[in-house]
UniProtKB/TrEMBL annotation:
InterPro entries: 2CSK_N, HAMP_dom, HATPase_C_sf, HATPase_dom, His_kinase_dom, HisK_dim/P_dom, HisK_dim/P_sf, Sig_transdc_His_kin-like_C
Name of the protein in its database record: histidine kinase
Lineage: Bacteria, Pseudomonadati, Pseudomonadota, Alphaproteobacteria, Hyphomicrobiales
Domain HAMP: 188-239
Transmembrane residue ranges: 12-33, 169-187
Domain of life of the native organism: Bacteria
Catalysed reactions, semicolon-separated: ATP + protein L-histidine = ADP + protein N-phospho-L-histidine
Subcellular location(s) of the protein: Membrane
Protein source organism: Ancylobacter rudongensis
GO MF terms held by the record: phosphorelay sensor kinase activity
Entry GO terms, CC: plasma membrane
Keywords, alphabetical: Kinase, Membrane, Phosphoprotein, Transferase, Transmembrane, Transmembrane helix, Two-component regulatory system
Domain (Histidine kinase): residue spans on this chain: 247-458
Amino acid sequence: MARREPSLFLRLFALMSLVLAFGAAVLMTAAWYSAREAADEAYDRLLLGAAYQIADAIQVQEGEPEIALPVSAFELLALSDRDRIFYRVLDPAGRTMTGYESLADPAAEAAAPDKALVENATFDGEVVRVARVSRRFDDPQMRGDAVVIVAQTVEARQALARDLTFRSFILVGVMGAIAIGGTIFAVRRALAPISRLEVAIRQRDPLDLTLVSVSTPRELAPFVAEINSFIERLRGRVELMQQFIADAAHQLRTPLAALEGQVDLLSNNEVTPEGRRHLDRIRVRTGQLSRLANQLLSHAMVAHRERAVAGSLVDLTELTRRALDDAIPDTLERDILVTLHAPPDPLIVSGDPVNLAEAIKNIVDNALRHGAPGRITVRLSRHGARAVLEVEDDGPGIPPAQWARVVQRFGAPSSDGKGSGLGLSIAAEVAAAHGGALCFREKGAFGFVVVLTLAAQGREVA
């Protein structure tokens, strides 16, 4: 048994979802770093602006540096109410003019300490962002660089980074949902030709052996070509089978009929009692062989027509009359009374008239050969949506234990050697092919009954 593989849609959807998920992860990571950089850049500008304002406030009075801290510098930093601010101002001699003595100079050992600098650091056990700027003095009374160091905790910038990242996540999520919806639409559209091909093949009539002509993409062309190649081979096999059945019917029936005729001619000649006994055996075996060949060919014809011939509306009463007409010679030889009870209106069923006639013929023939010693009664009736054919004979009947076997091929050949075990199996196959069934009713006061039920057409007449 072949292992069931997941559908192409699920495979494509899973692969494209993995690609989209990987892309979303990359975008979210990039959004996080970008948000952090944007937050740092925004707050670093405020930090440097405050440091420059403080540096501009340094003045030289009588050779000594003095400073009056500008309120506007701290107002800029105070826009972030979550953070604490630290500062330190150093004169050109490296002495602290004001601020926190413990706030370290981040550029004390830098190669270019005169450049503005912003970096992360730790102060008083907290992570801070430190800005350092310098201002050169060339006054004759004071020469050198004054340094301004301003530090700020990072809570506000982290909150801004989280807010920007969250908004980016929402945007990526919305775009991801749109992408997934677009993926589903695109995959279904891309696989639509496969669905059209599947529908075209599923809706084909089982009897249709024409080539598949469905417009498909280039990738499906080899698949369609292989289907058409298989149909071509199947059609060739069916034609060979039809030819074989026709040849077999001609080649077998003709010599068997001639052989039976020769046996009959020999029977008219004078032969010894021993020769007469052998001749009678030949006649019996020849008849058995002829019936077996006819039933085998009938079974092959029924199986073939079941798959190759479309049904039509048929009058079951008329078919039954014809089958009884064909059986009249046998009934006259054995003095069997045949009675037909049929409704006045036609009993219409849908099916193959040849196969239905073959089924009725086999049921009647079975009753003649293995059942009735003197009476056969055929009844046709309608019960709701079912047409019912009953063939009753006054013979011994079939034991219930063998009912399941007699409808199988060679399931229960007759003990007297007159039957092949195919007659009722052919009738059962025809009934099943027409949506009906073949069953039996146990022998009662009147006889054993074989019942054929089929789907009736039209309305029941009261």
